[in-house]
Amino acid sequence: MTDHQYPEQSQATTALVLGILGVVLCGLLGPFAWRIGGKEVKAIDAGRRPPENRSQAQAGRIMGIVETAFLALAIPAAIVAILAIAVAGADRNDEGDIVESGTLSVFDLEIGDCGDWPDADVYRSVTVHPCANAHDFEVYALRDFPDDSEAVYPGETAAEGWADQECLIAFEGYVGITWEESPDLTYTYLYPTEDSWAEGDREILCALAHIDEGTPLVGSKEGSGNTGA
């Protein structure tokens, strides 16, 4: 009697080893163990590979299925966790002051908040910090357009002009000197876009900034008389 010769080489051991490594080291190997083990079982049942290796192939396949199932659950959870970290809101103390850096919607900014503008023309969130940290801006006024909710968007030029006027007037009340008297502070503002207006946005946000773009502010300028930014 001669040994039976099979036309294909067994991969049962490979499936088993991948399944074990997936359990011990890395679940990412699970799909490979599942695929190789499944193909091996089918090849054995078709008579193309040695039947004595079926238990190894089946064990690798089952471990691969379990690991893949856990992986399918773990990846979405990891993505959610990463996104949660990326958009983590800033921490405020009982007085409402930001005490830990984080991300806030521009609609959640309050007077006295300090932070950095994103590198974009249109945005809905910003990074904020305690004002003792270096920062791009400090919010000093919030104003609403004197229009009802059904009003038609006035256009970008009109919205910007109204924002500029309101922020110029509010400067002195917050800083303690007029904008013209300030040695190194200027102001910037956010105003509704046509899209945000359609969603009910009517808010103007006024923010202090250093007159030299790129130079940060340090410390709050509220009531400072602006002896220097």
Question: How does this structure look, described?
Answer:
The chain is α+β, with helices and mostly antiparallel strands and about 230 residues long. About 40% of the residues lie in helices and about 15% in strands. The protein has two domains: about 10-85, no CATH class; about 90-210, no CATH class. It has helices at about 10-25, 30-45, 55-85, 155-175, 195-200, and strands at about 90, 100, 100-105, 115, 125-130, 135-145, 185-190, 205-210. The strands form two sheets. Strands 3-5-4-6-8-7 form a six-stranded antiparallel beta sheet, with helices on one face. A two-stranded antiparallel sheet has the order 1-2. Helix 1 (about 10-25) packs antiparallel against helix 2 (about 30-45).
Quote the distance from N terminus to C terminus: 96 Å
Structural class: alpha+beta
Number of domains: 2
Largest sheet: 6 strands, antiparallel
Provide a count of the helices.
5
Q: Order the strands across the largest sheet as they lie in space.
A: 3-5-4-6-8-7
Q: What is the overall silhouette?
A: elongated
H-E order: HHHEEEEEEHEHE
Instruction: Give the integer mean of the pLDDT values.
Output: 81
Strands, count:
8
Fraction of residues in helix = 25-40%
Low-confidence runs: 77-87
The percent range for strand residues is 15-25%
Cα gyration radius (Å): 31 Å
Considering the chains and any ligands shown, give keywords for the structure:
229 residues; two-stranded antiparallel sheet; 5 helices; elongated; alpha+beta; 6-stranded antiparallel sheet; single chain
